[in-house]
Batch of 2 targets.
Target 1
Amino acid sequence: MTAPAIIALGVTALFPLLWTISLSVQDFRVGAGGDSSFVGAENYVGVLTSPEFVHALMQTLGYVATTLLLELIVGLPIALALHRATTGRRILRVIVALPLMVAPVVAALAFKFLFSSDYGLINRGLEILGLPEPTWFADVWLARTTILVSNLWLALPFVVLVLLAGLANIPDELVEAARTDGASRWRTFVHIILPLLRPAILIILVIRLADAFRVFDAVYVLTGGGPANSTEVMSSYLYRLMFTRADFPGAAAATILFVIVIAVCAGSIFFLLRDREDRR
């Protein structure tokens, strides 16, 4: 009964993975007659000693850490407010979930128009207020900010909805008992609500971690990796390596290394945040 599932898994998941691993240990060039030869770890050494790979990896790690932190910092207060709100709560939840219906590339194009130096709505608002109008995509940190804002707008609904599900599972009796014992709102949040939200936060971190590592649309549409490769992440680096330079073995080796980095990061978060009982 499980044979079809195993075959489907092998075709859709294992075959591409094994093919990528096989390609990463070969010397293969497009236009060389299709000839290839086994080179062992040579491609991996080449990638690991490449300053571009190291730069893209560091950029990606910084982006992932920043965006996850921002999503939790912004998403948690919104989830708490929606959890407490009684009037119009359903309508507010629908409004918060609207970005989930927008394709990432469409959202990136919308933010490109918003941040445009010539006709963008944001610079227009700054002009009305008499404030300086920055060139968003020409400055390194401003370009990074546009990517973070675009990604935050897209990811926030998922974070808020998962946190709302976690808040709904917290018994009201615990919070009421803490209040009866004289605990302040802050102490109740830190010692009761936040620990009980740990499973929801773990889900958010693991899923959003993998998603943040794969960011491509926002970078490609908003900055194209610029200025001067300052916003280049691993996805855009792999795209350039494969489709611009046609270095398929190098791109395959970089992909395998990238997958290992994602697996290590996701495993570390899962190990740190899982319940103590599960560690035994």
Target 2
Amino acid sequence: MTTTLTATTTPATGTPRGPRGLVWAVLRVHRTALVFWGLTLTAATAGLIWMHTIADDARRGNVPCAEPAHDGLPSCASVEAITVDGLYSDGIALVTTALCYVILPVAAWAGGALIGRELESGTARLAWTQSVTPARWLAAKLAVPAALLTAGTGAVLLLNLWARTDDNPNLVGDWYGPDQFSGIGPVAVAYALAGLALGTLAGLLLRRTLPAAGVGFAAALLLHTVLERYREDLWPTVTRSEKGEFELPRSAWQQDGDITWGRHPGEGTPLSTSATFHPQSHFWPLQYVETGIVLVVAAAATLAAFRLLRRRMP
């Protein structure tokens, strides 16, 4: 009696979970940067939540006072005993500055590790021989970091705005400060994406890790410096002229001022005063214009990177 055993193959059931293909390859190759990015976001989130919990105490340590206390003013001794306001200001300033300059490390990493190193070592060409076209390779190299940068930078930006509570300039700085302006608006996300695009273009141009990292860093620094220098010209200013003398509120970003004196300059009341400034209501127009410029630069650098890659392919 012969028994015939028929081997059957059980088909796989269910859809595999998790990232696959090029996305998975990008995440795996750059897992060190991914872990660093995750730790940075975690630290920033924890710090900003803590800043929000001490914000009320920080405000109580930064109020007018009198000695002895009278007319509703607390005693100066009790106000000076509150030291958490300095810690709060330093914490908010640290995160805001990090958001302002995130473009620099992103550009250096994109030029060196993301693109330059893979071209220098030949890893990219190996991928291109395995049914992955150069355009798909570059698209994955840009899309994955862009999504992570947008999500991470945007989340920290929103947490930073939440932790600043009432935006007391004595604690968190004036809205027109160089770091404050870039660290509390959508332009922070745009700068991160521009750093990625500029670094990628540098990597494709030089195809060497260190030179590409340096050139990407320099290009990002140049973009940031130029826009910061000419930021006040991105939106029309307001001019206020009145007889006598007046002072602008602290919320006004003054650009120019002129005082007309009578027969004896510097003595008595001026004949008239004029000032050119940006009121606080110009914050969003300035943010939108600068964000648009930065995104255009990022798009142009991305387009140039794809064209450069196409020209160099046989």
